[in-house]
Prior knowledge:
Layout: E1 3-7, H1 13-23, H2 34-44, H3 47-54, E2 59-66, E3 69-77, H4 84-89, E4 95-103, H5 112-126, E5 131-137, H6 141-149, E6 153-162, E7 165-175
Helix pairs in contact: 1-3
This protein binds coenzyme A (COA).
Amino acid sequence: MTIDISTATADDAVALAACAAVxxxxxxxxxxxxxxxxxxxxxHLSAERFAALxxxxxHTILCLREQGGIVGWSMIVLDQPTDADVLSALSISPVxxxxxxxxxxxxxxxxxxxxxxxxxxDLAAASGLPGVWLGVNxxxxxAIRFYGKHGFQRVGTKRFRLGDRFEDDFILQQALPAGVxxxx
Length: 184
Ligand SMILES: CC(C)(COP(=O)(O)OP(=O)(O)OC[C@H]1O[C@@H](n2cnc3c(N)ncnc32)[C@H](O)[C@@H]1OP(=O)(O)O)[C@@H](O)C(=O)NCCC(=O)NCCS
């Protein structure tokens, strides 16, 4: 198995949408309504949306590729948080947001996610910013364990809107090594 990790372009949009349609539901809590999940995928994870994100300043998508297909993806965002709960929880500023992190279930537990996380943290550090944060659903025990193994610490809570319901997230952060890059 040859894994390759590289930045997405607009040409990856259709494959990213296909991967996202499989992996986003895995991050949702058990009580999520299927119609809310479907609407979120159609609205926020469509091929059109990925094509736009690929060219959006301050946003970088990394693709985990195997044999030409996309089996995972992450996205970092350089925009600073505005959510009051996030701002009060973080002790590092300014920060990179690890906005998305998804790996196809066929690759869970095989080290692929670790490789994608290493590349994603390297990219975050290359921004020159001193920290990185993310939100993860409080019921997503596997992801919470995974992020903990990769240096993230829980610093607070926030709410995530899915349809007309609010879900509870943990806010995690970690410091990034200094002197790796200059602010993008
Ligand atoms: C989160 C994700 C990227 C992690 O990748 P992975 O390959 O599954 O990660 P790993 O196997 O390296 O680590 C998962 C850890 O959680 C543990 N784990 C698995 N299921 C668990 C559960 N139900 N409760 C607690 N821990 C669990 C594993 O044993 C492992 O820990 P260990 O290495 O100490 O044994 C991947 O599972 C994924 O893409 N999930 C779906 C999308 C998602 O939830 N993304 C995060 C959105 S914020």
